[in-house]
Amino acid sequence: MTTPAPTVEPEKLLLTAADGYPLAARLYRSPTPAWAHLVVGGATAVPQGFYKRFAQYAASRGFDVLTLDYRGIGASAPASLKGFRMDYLDWGRQDLAAAVAEMRHPHKPLFLVGHSYGGHALGLLPEPDAVQAAWTFATGAGWHGWMPPLERLRVLFMWRVLGPLWTRAAGYLPWSRLGMGEDLPLDVYHQWRHWCRFPRYFFDDPQVASITERFADVRFPIVAVNALDDAWAPPASRDAFMAGYRNASVRSITIDTRRAGLGPIGHMGYFRPRAEPLWADALQWFEGQGRALPAA
Q: E strands, 143-266, where?
Protein backbone atom coordinates (compact mmCIF):
# COMPACT_ATOMS: atom_id res chain seq x y z
CA MET A 1 0.00 0.00 0.00
CA THR A 2 1.46 3.35 -1.02
CA THR A 3 1.02 6.75 0.54
CA PRO A 4 -1.00 9.42 -1.27
CA ALA A 5 1.00 11.31 -3.87
CA PRO A 6 2.51 14.52 -2.46
CA THR A 7 1.06 17.73 -3.87
CA VAL A 8 4.40 19.22 -4.94
CA GLU A 9 3.87 20.61 -8.44
CA PRO A 10 6.80 21.42 -10.71
CA GLU A 11 8.07 24.66 -12.15
CA LYS A 12 8.84 24.54 -15.86
CA LEU A 13 12.41 25.47 -16.75
CA LEU A 14 14.29 25.87 -20.01
CA LEU A 15 17.91 24.75 -19.78
CA THR A 16 20.56 25.39 -22.39
CA ALA A 17 23.15 22.71 -23.10
CA ALA A 18 26.77 23.69 -23.69
CA ASP A 19 26.23 23.39 -27.45
CA GLY A 20 23.22 25.72 -27.29
CA TYR A 21 20.44 23.13 -27.53
CA PRO A 22 17.32 24.12 -25.48
CA LEU A 23 16.07 21.51 -23.02
CA ALA A 24 12.71 21.32 -21.27
CA ALA A 25 13.03 20.61 -17.55
CA ARG A 26 10.89 20.62 -14.43
CA LEU A 27 11.93 21.60 -10.92
CA TYR A 28 10.16 20.09 -7.93
CA ARG A 29 10.95 22.23 -4.91
CA SER A 30 10.83 20.81 -1.41
CA PRO A 31 8.02 22.38 0.70
CA THR A 32 10.63 22.84 3.42
CA PRO A 33 14.15 24.22 2.90
CA ALA A 34 15.92 21.58 0.84
CA TRP A 35 19.02 20.03 2.35
CA ALA A 36 20.13 18.46 -0.96
CA HIS A 37 19.59 18.59 -4.71
CA LEU A 38 18.68 15.63 -6.90
CA VAL A 39 18.74 15.17 -10.68
CA VAL A 40 16.86 12.35 -12.41
CA GLY A 41 18.47 10.96 -15.56
CA GLY A 42 15.79 9.12 -17.50
CA ALA A 43 15.81 6.03 -19.70
CA THR A 44 15.95 5.94 -23.49
CA ALA A 45 12.67 7.13 -25.06
CA VAL A 46 11.09 7.92 -21.68
CA PRO A 47 9.75 11.48 -21.19
CA GLN A 48 10.30 13.24 -17.89
CA GLY A 49 6.64 13.07 -16.89
CA PHE A 50 7.13 9.38 -16.17
CA TYR A 51 9.28 10.35 -13.18
CA LYS A 52 6.84 12.87 -11.72
CA ARG A 53 5.62 10.76 -8.82
CA PHE A 54 9.16 9.86 -7.77
CA ALA A 55 10.20 13.51 -8.00
CA GLN A 56 7.22 14.55 -5.87
CA TYR A 57 8.06 11.87 -3.33
CA ALA A 58 11.68 13.02 -3.08
CA ALA A 59 10.68 16.69 -2.89
CA SER A 60 8.37 15.93 0.02
CA ARG A 61 11.41 14.50 1.84
CA GLY A 62 13.64 17.52 1.61
CA PHE A 63 15.16 17.33 -1.88
CA ASP A 64 14.88 19.88 -4.67
CA VAL A 65 14.47 17.61 -7.71
CA LEU A 66 15.11 18.31 -11.39
CA THR A 67 13.85 16.17 -14.27
CA LEU A 68 14.45 16.83 -17.96
CA ASP A 69 13.65 15.69 -21.47
CA TYR A 70 16.77 14.84 -23.45
CA ARG A 71 17.06 16.37 -26.91
CA GLY A 72 14.77 14.66 -29.40
CA ILE A 73 12.45 13.45 -26.61
CA GLY A 74 9.23 14.88 -25.17
CA ALA A 75 9.17 18.66 -24.90
CA SER A 76 12.82 18.82 -26.04
CA ALA A 77 12.02 17.26 -29.43
CA PRO A 78 11.75 19.18 -32.71
CA ALA A 79 8.47 19.33 -34.59
CA SER A 80 9.62 16.34 -36.67
CA LEU A 81 12.34 13.77 -36.00
CA LYS A 82 12.83 13.18 -39.71
CA GLY A 83 16.19 14.67 -40.61
CA PHE A 84 17.01 15.47 -36.97
CA ARG A 85 20.67 14.70 -36.24
CA MET A 86 22.28 14.15 -32.86
CA ASP A 87 24.71 11.99 -30.92
CA TYR A 88 23.25 9.49 -28.44
CA LEU A 89 26.12 10.25 -26.05
CA ASP A 90 25.05 13.89 -25.88
CA TRP A 91 22.14 12.95 -23.66
CA GLY A 92 24.78 12.48 -20.98
CA ARG A 93 27.68 14.76 -21.81
CA GLN A 94 25.48 17.69 -22.91
CA ASP A 95 21.92 17.32 -21.59
CA LEU A 96 22.37 15.66 -18.21
CA ALA A 97 25.44 17.86 -17.77
CA ALA A 98 23.21 20.94 -18.18
CA ALA A 99 20.89 19.62 -15.48
CA VAL A 100 23.84 19.00 -13.15
CA ALA A 101 25.12 22.53 -13.77
CA GLU A 102 21.66 23.92 -13.00
CA MET A 103 21.39 22.06 -9.70
CA ARG A 104 25.00 22.38 -8.52
CA HIS A 105 25.12 24.34 -5.27
CA PRO A 106 28.15 25.39 -3.20
CA HIS A 107 26.56 24.39 0.10
CA LYS A 108 24.28 21.46 -0.73
CA PRO A 109 25.15 17.96 -1.93
CA LEU A 110 24.03 16.91 -5.39
CA PHE A 111 22.79 13.37 -6.03
CA LEU A 112 21.75 11.59 -9.22
CA VAL A 113 19.13 8.92 -9.84
CA GLY A 114 19.57 7.18 -13.17
CA HIS A 115 17.09 4.92 -14.91
CA SER A 116 18.60 2.60 -17.55
CA TYR A 117 20.43 5.05 -19.88
CA GLY A 118 20.59 7.45 -16.94
CA GLY A 119 23.07 5.04 -15.36
CA HIS A 120 25.17 5.13 -18.53
CA ALA A 121 25.15 8.92 -18.50
CA LEU A 122 26.94 9.17 -15.15
CA GLY A 123 30.22 8.36 -16.86
CA LEU A 124 29.61 10.86 -19.65
CA LEU A 125 29.44 13.91 -17.39
CA PRO A 126 32.25 16.39 -18.10
CA GLU A 127 32.47 17.25 -14.39
CA PRO A 128 31.67 14.13 -12.37
CA ASP A 129 33.17 15.67 -9.24
CA ALA A 130 30.05 17.86 -9.03
CA VAL A 131 28.11 14.77 -7.91
CA GLN A 132 28.31 13.29 -4.42
CA ALA A 133 26.58 9.94 -5.05
CA ALA A 134 24.27 8.14 -7.49
CA TRP A 135 21.60 5.45 -7.40
CA THR A 136 20.66 3.59 -10.57
CA PHE A 137 17.66 1.47 -11.48
CA ALA A 138 17.70 -0.97 -14.43
CA THR A 139 21.06 0.03 -15.86
CA GLY A 140 22.58 -2.73 -18.00
CA ALA A 141 24.76 -3.44 -21.00
CA GLY A 142 21.90 -3.95 -23.49
CA TRP A 143 23.37 -7.08 -25.08
CA HIS A 144 20.72 -9.63 -26.06
CA GLY A 145 22.87 -12.45 -24.68
CA TRP A 146 22.20 -11.30 -21.13
CA MET A 147 18.44 -11.52 -21.66
CA PRO A 148 16.08 -14.48 -21.12
CA PRO A 149 15.61 -16.58 -24.29
CA LEU A 150 12.19 -15.25 -25.31
CA GLU A 151 13.17 -11.62 -24.77
CA ARG A 152 16.38 -12.27 -26.67
CA LEU A 153 14.36 -13.35 -29.73
CA ARG A 154 12.09 -10.34 -29.50
CA VAL A 155 15.01 -7.95 -29.27
CA LEU A 156 16.84 -9.52 -32.18
CA PHE A 157 13.67 -9.31 -34.28
CA MET A 158 13.39 -5.63 -33.40
CA TRP A 159 17.04 -4.87 -34.25
CA ARG A 160 17.24 -6.99 -37.40
CA VAL A 161 13.75 -6.76 -38.91
CA LEU A 162 11.42 -4.10 -37.50
CA GLY A 163 14.03 -1.45 -36.82
CA PRO A 164 15.58 -1.39 -40.31
CA LEU A 165 12.16 -1.43 -41.99
CA TRP A 166 10.67 1.29 -39.82
CA THR A 167 13.66 3.62 -39.91
CA ARG A 168 13.99 3.27 -43.66
CA ALA A 169 10.35 4.22 -44.11
CA ALA A 170 10.03 6.96 -41.49
CA GLY A 171 13.51 8.44 -41.14
CA TYR A 172 13.44 7.78 -37.40
CA LEU A 173 12.49 4.88 -35.12
CA PRO A 174 8.72 4.92 -34.40
CA TRP A 175 9.34 3.29 -31.03
CA SER A 176 5.92 4.39 -29.77
CA ARG A 177 4.30 1.73 -31.99
CA LEU A 178 5.64 -0.85 -29.55
CA GLY A 179 4.17 1.04 -26.60
CA MET A 180 7.65 1.46 -25.12
CA GLY A 181 7.97 5.23 -25.00
CA GLU A 182 8.71 8.08 -27.38
CA ASP A 183 9.86 7.82 -30.96
CA LEU A 184 13.65 7.95 -31.31
CA PRO A 185 15.95 9.99 -33.57
CA LEU A 186 17.64 7.98 -36.28
CA ASP A 187 21.14 8.50 -34.86
CA VAL A 188 20.04 7.20 -31.46
CA TYR A 189 18.65 4.07 -33.09
CA HIS A 190 21.84 3.38 -35.05
CA GLN A 191 24.19 3.92 -32.11
CA TRP A 192 22.00 2.01 -29.65
CA ARG A 193 21.67 -0.93 -32.05
CA HIS A 194 25.41 -0.96 -32.71
CA TRP A 195 26.45 -0.96 -29.05
CA CYS A 196 23.88 -3.59 -28.09
CA ARG A 197 25.87 -6.03 -30.25
CA PHE A 198 28.59 -6.08 -27.59
CA PRO A 199 28.46 -7.91 -24.22
CA ARG A 200 29.82 -4.83 -22.46
CA TYR A 201 28.00 -2.29 -24.61
CA PHE A 202 30.14 0.65 -25.73
CA PHE A 203 33.02 -0.43 -23.49
CA ASP A 204 33.71 -3.07 -26.16
CA ASP A 205 33.69 -0.55 -29.02
CA PRO A 206 37.24 0.67 -29.74
CA GLN A 207 35.87 3.61 -31.73
CA VAL A 208 34.68 5.31 -28.53
CA ALA A 209 37.55 4.26 -26.26
CA SER A 210 38.54 7.88 -25.65
CA ILE A 211 35.05 8.46 -24.24
CA THR A 212 34.64 5.30 -22.19
CA GLU A 213 38.09 5.75 -20.64
CA ARG A 214 36.63 8.76 -18.86
CA PHE A 215 34.40 6.48 -16.81
CA ALA A 216 37.50 6.01 -14.68
CA ASP A 217 37.04 9.63 -13.54
CA VAL A 218 33.84 8.71 -11.71
CA ARG A 219 34.77 8.26 -8.07
CA PHE A 220 31.52 8.92 -6.25
CA PRO A 221 29.68 5.92 -4.70
CA ILE A 222 26.98 4.22 -6.77
CA VAL A 223 24.22 1.81 -5.83
CA ALA A 224 22.94 -0.22 -8.81
CA VAL A 225 19.53 -1.85 -8.35
CA ASN A 226 18.14 -4.42 -10.80
CA ALA A 227 15.15 -6.73 -10.49
CA LEU A 228 15.28 -10.41 -11.36
CA ASP A 229 12.24 -9.97 -13.61
CA ASP A 230 13.84 -7.13 -15.60
CA ALA A 231 14.28 -8.91 -18.94
CA TRP A 232 16.15 -5.98 -20.52
CA ALA A 233 18.63 -5.40 -17.70
CA PRO A 234 18.97 -8.52 -15.52
CA PRO A 235 21.73 -8.56 -12.89
CA ALA A 236 24.34 -10.09 -15.22
CA SER A 237 23.79 -7.25 -17.68
CA ARG A 238 24.15 -4.73 -14.88
CA ASP A 239 27.40 -6.27 -13.70
CA ALA A 240 28.84 -6.22 -17.22
CA PHE A 241 28.17 -2.50 -17.56
CA MET A 242 28.89 -1.27 -14.05
CA ALA A 243 32.38 -2.78 -14.22
CA GLY A 244 33.18 0.25 -16.38
CA TYR A 245 33.03 2.43 -13.27
CA ARG A 246 36.29 0.89 -12.17
CA ASN A 247 37.35 3.61 -9.73
CA ALA A 248 33.96 4.05 -8.09
CA SER A 249 32.57 2.11 -5.17
CA VAL A 250 29.66 0.25 -6.76
CA ARG A 251 27.21 -1.68 -4.62
CA SER A 252 24.90 -3.99 -6.57
CA ILE A 253 21.45 -4.88 -5.25
CA THR A 254 19.35 -7.60 -6.86
CA ILE A 255 15.63 -7.56 -6.12
CA ASP A 256 13.49 -10.67 -6.02
CA THR A 257 10.17 -8.93 -6.57
CA ARG A 258 8.12 -11.89 -5.36
CA ARG A 259 9.92 -12.11 -2.03
CA ALA A 260 9.87 -8.34 -1.68
CA GLY A 261 6.11 -8.24 -2.26
CA LEU A 262 6.45 -5.52 -4.89
CA GLY A 263 4.65 -7.26 -7.75
CA PRO A 264 6.09 -7.19 -11.29
CA ILE A 265 8.83 -4.63 -11.90
CA GLY A 266 10.24 -5.45 -15.33
CA HIS A 267 12.28 -2.66 -16.87
CA MET A 268 9.91 0.22 -16.16
CA GLY A 269 8.22 -0.58 -12.86
CA TYR A 270 10.93 0.97 -10.69
CA PHE A 271 9.16 4.30 -11.01
CA ARG A 272 5.58 3.15 -10.66
CA PRO A 273 3.71 3.52 -7.34
CA ARG A 274 4.29 -0.06 -6.19
CA ALA A 275 8.02 0.63 -6.09
CA GLU A 276 7.76 3.34 -3.44
CA PRO A 277 9.73 1.21 -0.91
CA LEU A 278 12.65 1.30 -3.35
CA TRP A 279 12.46 5.09 -3.47
CA ALA A 280 12.59 5.24 0.32
CA ASP A 281 15.72 3.07 0.29
CA ALA A 282 17.42 5.36 -2.23
CA LEU A 283 16.63 8.57 -0.37
CA GLN A 284 17.67 7.09 2.97
CA TRP A 285 20.99 6.05 1.43
CA PHE A 286 21.52 9.56 0.05
CA GLU A 287 20.91 10.96 3.51
CA GLY A 288 23.70 8.76 4.78
CA GLN A 289 26.12 9.99 2.12
CA GLY A 290 26.41 13.49 3.48
CA ARG A 291 24.62 16.50 4.85
CA ALA A 292 24.48 19.97 3.34
CA LEU A 293 27.93 21.50 3.02
CA PRO A 294 28.75 24.22 5.57
CA ALA A 295 28.11 27.79 4.58
CA ALA A 296 31.08 29.74 3.31
A: 222-227, 250-255
DSSP 8-state symbol, 69: P
Instruction: With H, G, I as helix, E, B as strand and everything else as coil, classify residue 165.
Output: helix
Per-chain mean pLDDT for the chain: 94
Dist. CA 18–CA 39, nearest whole Å: 18
- CA angle in degrees (0–180, nearest 5) for 137-14-113: 15
Tally: H helices and E strands in the chain? 11, 8
Give 49-52 contacts, CB < 8 A, sequence gap 24+: 49/74, 50/268, 50/271, 51/115, 51/271, 52/10, 52/26
Q: How far apart are CA 230 and CA 234, in angstroms?
A: 5
Q: How far is it, in rounded angstroms, from Cα 43 to Cα 26?
A: 16
Question: First and final CA of the chain: distance in angstroms?
Answer: 43
What CATH number is given for 11-289 in this structure? 3.40.50.1820
* Cβ pair 121, 40 in contact under 8 A: no
**Residue 61, C-beta contacts closer than 8 angstroms, at least 6 positions apart:** 30, 283
pLDDT digits (tens, 9 = 90+) for 244-289: 999 999 999 999 988 888 999 999 999 999 999 999 999 999 999 9
Q: pTM, whole model, 2 decimals?
A: 0.94
Give the separation between CA 1 and CA 101, rounded to whole angstroms.
36
Gyration radius (Cα) of the chain, Å: 18
